[in-house]
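Okay, is this right?
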Amino acid sequence: MKVAVTDKGVLIPKELLFDVEEVEIKRENDLIIITPSDKKDPILGLGKNPVTCKIPDASENLDKYLYGSTE
């Protein structure tokens, strides 16, 4: 498929993008690479699958249990 490059760039037909909502565009040497972008922020997933243990104060005293620090 060939498309014209205008002063605003190139329009990519929607049927080539399927259900993608956002893409990342990179240029590597002479190639322009368009890849689907994962819009999900991994930070938002923290805490969804918590680890259970028999230490009731693990979240409050995390450094103590990870590093042996009592400060």
